[in-house]
Write a structure and sequence with these properties.
The protein is mainly beta. Strand 30 and strand 31 form a beta hairpin.
């Protein structure tokens, strides 16, 4: 009978003793990704594919958490499909001294000092030929002075810092129970540094393959399952197909042989479009071959990876029964994505195309977060803009090369023109009143974010505009008299001048226009009661614009246009009085005061309301002379009408006279001249005149 002691440590694998007893050597052999023991070329196994563990009542009290985790570890080996091995257990009545050769597989905790530094578990293997006879297991009560934790689903934050958090009893017990059924370490410890290996529970260094998936489920890896199937193959009718694919959270370390490390990606900080390399481990836990299974890589803003997250890439795999693959995937990051911290993960069978026994071990989230760095803004070219002056300008929306990554952006203008503004969120420029320029405006638009800033040039041409004419209100023309329209004004003279020509597009017969000023001229307004549509046009080098307005023709009782309504005006009315419904005719239309087409008593009534007889009063002229005249005659001659019924002052019209000493006297023109003064004009007054000083 031969005894070999194996144990798992943080830093090394050690065989404490190999003793030759009986028929031959117990030797390690390796097939595929697992190791086992043979005697004379025959695999060493448990008789009947069964093993009973005797549990110490002090270490594993019934119902305790230690018992629960140890039984869970045994159960993992019992449920391997297409395998006939089965653990059973019993609890001793009391603790007995461990005897490696008594045929009872004892399990107990001992002081850590009894096992030596760095030892997390020890399994003593004793065979009787090609059958195991006794396998005792010892666990330190306080490994490394830190202790155990009993977390069923330990995350990488727990697993990767054992000297802070303690060691997972479930992981260690599962490993030691692999020894207890006849599996050795893999790698066995003789490999050259850097030799790749597959993660599995039988890796010799903690955490021995680690949990699986983002749910941190502790399961047997593919090579563990292959090893126990090899030693204890299923006999009898084949069971139903068992489909279970897994996405492992741990991979091999290239520097520490036998040590599993969390899957990782490099680099941990990228910019949009960079390449990201991700370590991935996929395994087939089932009993079927699965083909064309999709593996998707995802980016998430939270610590749960699912198919609703942003898909980075996908690839398809054929994964045969008993197969596992450990590889690096190189992925090009999206060309644009927001800066910040992200979680990275992968999902095996992310489209749920394969119906599996367990779906909760297909998702993996990487322990480290990925930093997507923000790029300083780079603004795409801004197209040149050309606008007419006096037309409100709204600029194009500027766009940066990576809108998602470079935002949020604050927009500004380095050199705004007077009245020019920019929306600091959208970057749209507004200029309500652009000013004409012979040269292009050069506007520097700046984008700023937390990573930096940059500018882009907007070239803006502001040319003269075609004329736009201000509104002209309703105009009134007196029938039979000359009508002169208002001087039209353009809306933006500095922008629209010079006007080359004014023209009349529409108007009544006889109406013309001053080609230089735009004033409408109608020498003899006609059509009492009629509103005439008048349209004028202004033309410059850029184009032309029109404006329409109405001219309404009205009659007046002052037919002789002498400033009063008297008998002379009545005589003209009487000559045209033909009665109702008799067309007035061209010569009499201006006497049609009510604009109904005839001259009748209605018009007489309107005439009578205005009739006042002949209006005569004193008219003073600038030289001081005076005569009696009608108001209109007086003003047409440049005089000042003193009022109806007034008479000329005796001696002439007085006015302000400024003397050489600066005094002022109200005098007639001759008297002012005689006093060597300056006559300010008839009708002026010293009360409102300021004379120059002496």
């Amino acid at each position: 009978m031969t005894t070999l002691r194996k144990y798992i440590t943080r830093s090394r694998v050690a065989v404490l003793a190999v003793v030759l007893l009986g028929a031959g050597w117990l030797s390690g052999d390796r097939a595929d990704g697992f190791s086992y023991f043979q005697v004379g070329g025959v695999n060493v196994v448990w008789a009947g594919a069964q093993s009973t563990r005797l549990l110490s009542p002090s270490t594993f009290p019934p119902g305790s958490v230690t018992e629960l985790h140890y039984l869970a570890a045994m159960g993992l080996w019992n449920i391997v499909p297409r395998c006939d091995f089965e653990y059973s257990y019993a609890t001793n009545e009391q603790d007995f001294p461990v005897d490696n050769f008594d045929g009872y597989s004892d399990t107990i905790a001992v002081p850590a000092a009894d096992l030596g530094p760095g030892v997390l578990g020890a399994t003593y293997l004793v065979n009787d030929g090609a059958q195991w006879f006794d396998m005792d297991q010892l666990y330190p009560d306080l490994p490394e002075g830190i202790g155990w934790y009993f977390e069923a689903n330990p995350g990488c934050d727990l697993v990767t810092a054992p000297l802070v958090n303690g060691f997972s009893f479930l992981l260690v017990a599962t490993h030691e129970l692999g020894h207890a059924l006849g599996l050795g370490h893999d790698p066995v410890g003789t490999e050259a540094p850097g030799t790749p290996f597959l993660v599995q529970t039988m890796n010799p260094r903690y955490p021995s393959g680690g949990p699986i998936g983002q749910e941190n489920i502790i399961e047997l890896h593919t090579e563990d399952r292959n090893g126990v199937r090899f030693l204890y193959p299923h006999s009898g009718p084949a069971g139903p197909a068992y489909v279970d694919l897994a996405n492992a959270s741990y991979s091999f370390s290239s520097t520490d042989i036998g040590k599993a490390i969390p899957v990782f990606f490099t680099p941990t900080a990228v910019e949009p479009g960079d390449e990201l390399t991700l370590r991935t481990v996929i395994e087939n836990f089932g009993t079927t071959n699965e083909f064309n299974v999709r593996l998707g890589y995802y980016l998430s803003t939270d610590d749960v990876i699912d198919a609703s997250d942003q898909l980075l890439a996908d690839v398809r795999f054929d994964l045969a029964f008993q197969d596992a693959q450990d590889f690096d995937a190189a992925i090009d990051m999206p060309e644009d994505l927001p800066a910040g911290e992200y979680y990275v993960g992968s999902i095996f069978d992310d489209l749920d195309e394969v119906t599996e026994e367990y779906e909760d071990n297909n998702h993996v989230i990487y322990c480290d977060t990925l930093t997507v760095e923000q790029l300083a803004p780079v603004i795409n070219n801004l197209p040149q803009q050309n606008i007419p002056c006096a037309t409100p300008f709204t600029g194009p929306t500027p766009v940066v090369t990576h809108p998602l990554n470079m935002g949020p952006i604050t927009w500004s203008i380095d050199n705004p023109e007077p009245g020019m503004t920019i929306d600091d969120e959208t970057g749209v420029i507004s200029w309500p009143s652009p000013v004409r320029s012979e040269f292009l405006y050069t506007i520097f638009v700046r984008a700023t974010n937390s990573a930096g800033s940059s500018t882009q040039t907007l070239f803006l041409g502001v040319s003269a505009a075609a004329p736009a004419i201000n509104t002209i209100g309703l105009q009134t023309a007196v029938c039979g008299q000359e009508y002169v329209g208002p001087v039209p004004q353009i809306t933006a003279p500095s922008c629209m001048n010079p006007i080359i020509n004014w023209s009349l597009d529409n108007g009544p017969p006889g109406m013309g226009i001053d080609f230089e000023t735009g004033e409408v001229l109608w020498p003899d307004a006609a059509g009492v009661g009629t509103q005439h549509l008048v349209t004028i046009r202004a033309t410059n080098a850029q184009g032309n614009g029109t404006r329409s307005f109405l001219v309404e023709v009205v009659g007046t009782p002052d037919r002789d246009n002498d400033g009063d309504v008297d008998d002379a005006d009545y005589a003209e009315y009487a000559a045209c009085h033909d009665g109702p419904d008799v067309l007035s005719g061209a010569a009499c239309e201006c006497n049609d005061l009510d604009g109904d087409g005839d001259v009748d008593l209605r018009d007489l009534g309107l005439f009578q309301l205005a009739y006042s007889g002949r209006r005569v009063g004193a008219c003073c002229y600038g030289n001081g002379s005076c005569d009696l005249s009608a108001p209109l005659v007086c003003t047409d001659a440049g005089g000042s009408y003193l009022g109806d019924g007034t008479t000329c002052p005796v001696g002439g019209c007085q006015g302000a006279c400024c003397l050489s000493n600066g005094f002022c006297l109200d005098l007639t023109a001759p008297n002012c001249t005689g006093a060597a003064g300056t006559f300010e004009g008839a009708g002026t007054s010293c009360s409102t005149t300021t004379c120059p000083g002496p």
